[in-house]
Specification:
This protein is α/β, with parallel strands linked by helices. It is built from ten helices and twelve strands. The strands form two sheets. Strands 1, 2, 3, 4, 7, 8, 9, 10, 11 and 12 form a ten-stranded mixed β-sheet that branches. Strands 5-6 form a two-stranded antiparallel ribbon. Helix 3 runs parallel beside helix 9. The structure holds zinc ion. Zinc ion (ZN) binds next to loops.
């Protein structure tokens, strides 16, 4: 077998192993010639590179059973839309985030430009939450607004991550790879919350937990080993499904090193979307998940970086 053929076979094996989460195989070792992540597309700017300060470390478990080969990265997120009806009460929102970060959970917030420009206390929210370790992602429903949202976050004293949410998968060609607003560049690195159709109707949202590099709009869920963007799957956001995912991992039914799950909270109600679970249920969930030694609390961007560092093995749990 030529080296080229050998490497192609290895890649195929890695891909198959990653796509078959029911197999409980040992972690494969990455070949040395795994495609390099293009520096231009590396999740950037990170909190470290942009501000010169190290971001808070990903939370280590406080207790638990022996680690499995798989680590479950759990993030929390909010999306604040341009529509005023979706806006949070600022004081209640800040109080929730203070409690939720004090627990030890890591949060990623995305806000569309309507809120960033229209909420008189937006800068205060960005500053206070950033001080609590929250990361600010780019969440816009108009692609042209991405760099503007990033610029506003920067202007308010935050550091926009490379995470983008709020997009339609079929618009892939329009939002890859980067955007500019008044000379300020914003580079896309991570995708979260992809949808196939607008309006959060049944079947519209991509809800597979796990991380991969999408191939294209037509083959979004097919992992591309040489792909430059990272999709972090949030799952259904339901606590019960997060528990079920942890049980699957504990039972050895998942083989990929990094799996993701996101608890998504509606800013205006401070309840998990969809549903009525609030801070108290999240507190119970947090304590339960910490019983698993393989759970890591991380922002969406941190999850993508951990997946990259662990060898970029696709982990679409439950996908066919
Ligand atoms: Zn939105």
């Amino acid at each position: 077998m030529t080296p080229k053929l050998l490497s192609a076979s290895l890649m195929l094996v890695l891909f198959l192993v990653g796509c078959a989460p029911v197999l409980n195989s040992p972690q494969p070792v990455l070949p040395k010639n795994e495609p390099e992540f293009s520096p231009a597309m590396r999740p950037a700017p990170t909190a470290e590179s942009a501000s010169g300060q190290a971001s808070a470390p990903i939370t280590e478990p406080v207790s638990g059973e022996p680690d499995t080969a798989t680590q479950l990265y759990i993030s929390g997120t909010f999306h604040i839309e341009t529509n005023r009806k979706s806006w949070p009460d600022v004081d209640a929102f800040l109080a929730f985030i203070e409690h939720a970060t004090t627990l030890g959970m890591k949060w990623s917030i995305g806000a569309d430009v309507g809120w960033l420009e229209g909420e008189p206390r937006a800068a205060e929210v960005v500053q206070k939450t950033t001080a609590l370790g929250v990361e600010w992602d780019v969440h816009t429903h108009v692609h042209a607004d991405r760099a503007r949202a990033a610029a506003l976050i920067r202007q308010f004293g935050g550091t926009p991550t490379s995470v983008y949410s709020g997009f339609l998968i079929q618009d892939w060609d329009k939002f890859v790879p980067e955007a500019t607003y008044r000379g300020e560049n914003w580079v896309l690195g991570v995708l979260w919350g992809a949808v196939n159709c607008p309006g959060h109707r049944p079947g519209c949202d991509e809800q597979t937990p796990g991380v991969w590099s999408p191939s294209s709009a037509d083959n979004y869920t097919m992992h591309d080993p040489a792909g430059m963007l990272i999709h972090v799957g949030g799952g259904t956001h339901q606590l019960a499904d997060g528990r079920a995912l942890a049980e699957q991992i504990a039972a050895g039914q998942v083989s990929a090193p990094v799996v993701s799950f996101t608890v998504m909270v509606t800013p205006s109600t401070l309840q998990i979307f969809p549903g009525e679970d609030g801070l108290e249920e999240i507190r119970v969930f947090y304590a339960e998940m910490n019983e698993y030694g393989f759970v890591r609390w991380a922002t969406i961007e941190e999850t993508a970086r951990a997946w990259d560092a662990a060898g970029r093995i696709p982990s679409q749990v439950g996908a066919e």
